[in-house]
């Protein structure tokens, strides 16, 4: 079967291009048996809390549950995801620098594995991971003070941590600076991830994870928000002239991201998710390491479809692409396709 994503590539060409045991690993590449579609595990990129409308510090409680479920990876393809709250990425957590954060982590009773959470915003042992090693049916937690503003990744850190991350156990926490962030028209939440399967990319049915490929750093799928075409089914949306802010994270576990919008330029970018310096401007592509984050702002000036990609463009073939749908009035003074001379003449003559 053709496992490449021809329609998208055509579009790109058109615009000029103490540990529990590991899950069982099998080395065969047999065709998986067809199964049902599975749950929709893709988190809508618009599913995040809005800017904080307060200046005073508060105590914020974050309740998370680790859930293992069969989800839709691609059309006709499912995968056994491990998640926070049933979606990938996990919930977007938004707090203010100086806040006290109470984290409660429950592991669903029907889970097969132990899980925990390591938040990169935490200054404490294991980022909270030591305090939250929960067996199925258990709940544990910890309290920390958000001392450093920025955008941070969180993830499961139970060994083998790369296995838990590759199965979908990651998310982000934003620690807003005291003055907050500038107002924008839209905010979106996007994370890049990797999935390693025994079966080749494009296989239908229920796929199983390959530990050997994790160790070799050879992902079969690379995705935004957990699934192939997840951010085509749930696109980002805007109108010309509106400012779009994207909170972007690279969950890894292994590959850097060269985050890029085809047909757009980042007007402002905060590399590494740090707000300590003024943003850089007019950025074409931003490098984000595994376990790292960045904040970017983009203002489309004309309508159309714009594509989110990792500019290591072979990864498009593995599912790493998303869509920003911009609707509005055409601006021929800013962009228009040039007609061949004969087409222009025919149009002028009414033929």
Helices and strands in order:
Elements: H1 6-14, E1 59-74, E2 77-84, E3 93-96, E4 100-107, E5 118-119, E6 139-145, E7 150-155, H2 161-166, E8 170-176, E9 186-195, E10 205-207, H3 211-216, E11 221-224, H4 230-233, E12 234-238, E13 244-252, E14 257-262, E15 266-270, E16 280-283, E17 285-288, E18 292-298, E19 304-310, E20 321-326, H5 341-349
Parallel strand pairs: 1-4, 2-10, 3-8, 9-13, 12-20
Antiparallel strand pairs: 1-2, 4-6, 5-7, 7-8, 9-11, 13-18, 14-17, 14-19, 15-16, 15-18, 19-20
What does this structure look like?
The structure is a single chain. By secondary structure, the chain is mostly beta strands. The protein has a single domain, classed as Immunoglobulin-like (Sandwich), CATH 2.60.40. 10% of the residues lie in helices and 36% in strands. The protein has five helices and 20 strands. Strands 11-9-13-18-15-16 form a six-stranded mixed β-sheet.
Number of strands: 20
- Helical content stands at under 10%
Radius of gyration: 21 Å
CATH architecture: Sandwich
Distance between the termini: 43 Å
- Average per-residue pLDDT, rounded, comes to 90
Q: What structural class do the secondary elements suggest?
A: mainly beta
Any idea what the shape is?
globular
What's the CATH H-level homologous superfamily? Answer: Cupredoxins -  blue copper proteins
Number of domains: 1
């Amino acid at each position: 079967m053709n496992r490449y994503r021809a329609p998208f590539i055509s579009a790109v060409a058109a615009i000029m291009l103490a540990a529990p045991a590991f899950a069982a690993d099998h080395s065969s590449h047999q065709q998986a048996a067809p199964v049902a579609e599975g749950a929709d595990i893709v988190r809508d990129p618009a599913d995040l809390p809005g800017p904080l409308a307060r200046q005073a510090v508060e105590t914020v409680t974050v309740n998370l549950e680790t859930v293992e479920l069969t989800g839709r990876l691609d059309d006709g393809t499912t995968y056994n995801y491990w998640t926070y709250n049933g979606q990938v990425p996990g919930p977007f957590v938004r707090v203010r620098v100086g806040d006290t954060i109470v984290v409660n982590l429950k592991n669903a009773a029907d889970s097969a594995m132990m899980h925990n959470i390591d938040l990169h915003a935490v200054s404490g042992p294991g980022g909270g991971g030591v305090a939250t090693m929960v067996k199925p049916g258990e709940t544990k937690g910890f309290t920390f003070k958000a001392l450093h503003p920025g955008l941070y990744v969180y993830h499961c850190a139970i060994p083998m941590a790369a296995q838990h991350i590759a199965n979908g156990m990651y998310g982000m926490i934003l620690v807003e600076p005291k003055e907050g962030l500038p107002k924008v028209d839209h905010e979106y939440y996007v994370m890049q991830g990797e999935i390693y399967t025994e079966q080749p990319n494009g296989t239908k049915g229920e796929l199983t994870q390959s530990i050997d490929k994790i160790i070799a750093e050879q992902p079969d799928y690379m995705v935004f928000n957990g699934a192939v075409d997840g951010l085509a089914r749930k696109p980002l949306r805007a109108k010309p002239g509106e400012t779009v802010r994207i909170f972007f994270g690279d969950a890894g576990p292994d590959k850097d991201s060269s985050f890029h919008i085809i047909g757009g330029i980042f007007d402002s970018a905060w590399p590494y998710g740090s707000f300590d310096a003024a943003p850089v401007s007019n950025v074409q592509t931003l490098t984000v390491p595994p376990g790292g984050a960045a904040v970017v702002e983009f203002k489309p000036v004309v309508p159309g479809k714009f594509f989110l990609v990792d500019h290591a463009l072979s990864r498009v073939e593995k599912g790493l692409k998303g869509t920003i749908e911009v609707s509005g009035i055409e601006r021929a003074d800013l962009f228009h396709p040039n007609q061949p001379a004969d087409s222009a003449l025919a149009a002028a003559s009414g033929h």
